């Protein structure tokens, strides 16, 4: 059957599944407490939150001491992963003001509309060259899985005031939208890669695909618009508290997902489109959205990195090969940097900026969640190899982008200060980061 995300709350069989070990929950809770106590001291250092949680997960999980038993196939883990992806797609889209993007953020528009497709094409070509056994669609799936970026892995870059606001916001906006834009490609390539092993007729695949990409966005748009109107009305009449407005956002994102799945659309695409419509139709300041992203959203994301380190990373390393590492390094460098540089030709920005923006396209949350929720459901001949390459790429990105974020942001900031009047320093409007912080050090034009 073609891939469908499915809502797993309805299919959990408690008689066949072992409960999550209580000692593992205690260990995870202790880690969150320990990190909370020192989080302020770690800000601005090379030790980022994703790096710490991946490392701890690996050491505590099956790849290390084995004291925390976290099964990536457990239904509870999948529920958390689905909720995280729904929230990330919805809130990332909701925080991006499309009118401001259209008005004065041409750099991320170029990166998304030109750079992203070129990066997927380049990744496909390199995968076919390095892995001859892969089909075209498997190579394209691998490239699409690694196309989305995660600015949170280089937090020091998007929050460093030394870096021109226009450049920080370009990285921030690209990261906020490219996971939702890449998602249809991931779903399409996963379906096509598994089609050869399916008994469905071609007409079934076509009908399924059309429903996924039409009903999903349609349901998302309707729910996003209705949710924005309802929350605006409640806020105007002082019916809803700020805290419950945040809970309302969670409800709207889940409704967009579930209703799309119920009518045959894709719930994840629905969540992304719903967030885009919601954020751009809401009239009141969306402070509760940013507060939610800073607390509950952060919790879900760090749990995902912990699960990645405990379960996915050992599985990925078990199948590691030299060609896998070569592809991972190329994915973080040439496959990303050359398409981004091509997309920015004629924009007026200088070579150091091309290199800086090209390098800071970390692979993180979206790639992990796509692997957890999409790759594991698809019947693909080289699933283990694609998973291993994706895991190695994300692991390298967590370390390399985390370590280089602060020093390169400072170095580039000093260089930018010497550029004088230039395209990089052009004033632009500000938008919040995924963590809810604003980066504004210039007045909005």
Q: What's a quick, concise take on this entry?
A:
This protein has 17 helices and no strands. By secondary structure, the chain is mostly helical. The protein has one domain: Na+/H+ antiporter like fold (Up-down Bundle).
Structural overview:
This protein has one domain: Up-down Bundle (Na+/H+ antiporter like fold), CATH 1.20.1530.20. The protein contains 17 helices and no strands. It has helices spanning 22-42, 49-60, 75-94, 98-104, 106-130, 136-145, 155-159, 165-195, 202-236, 242-262, 267-281, 287-318, 322-332, 334-343, 351-359, 365-375, 383-417.
* CATH architecture verdict: Up-down Bundle
- Structural domains: how many: 1
- Tally of contiguous helical segments: 17
Q: DSSP strand (E) fraction?
A: under 5%
SSE order in H/E notation? HHHHHHHHHHHHHHHHH
Describe the main β-sheet briefly: none
Mean pLDDT: 83
The total strand number stands at: 0
- The CATH topology label is Na+/H+ antiporter like fold
Basic shape: globular
Task: Give me the Rg, rounded.
Answer: 21 Å
Oligomer: single chain
- Low-confidence segments: 5-15, 436-445
Helix content: 55-70%
| Distance between the ends | 51 Å
Q: What is the name of the CATH class?
A: Mainly Alpha
Secondary structure category: mainly alpha
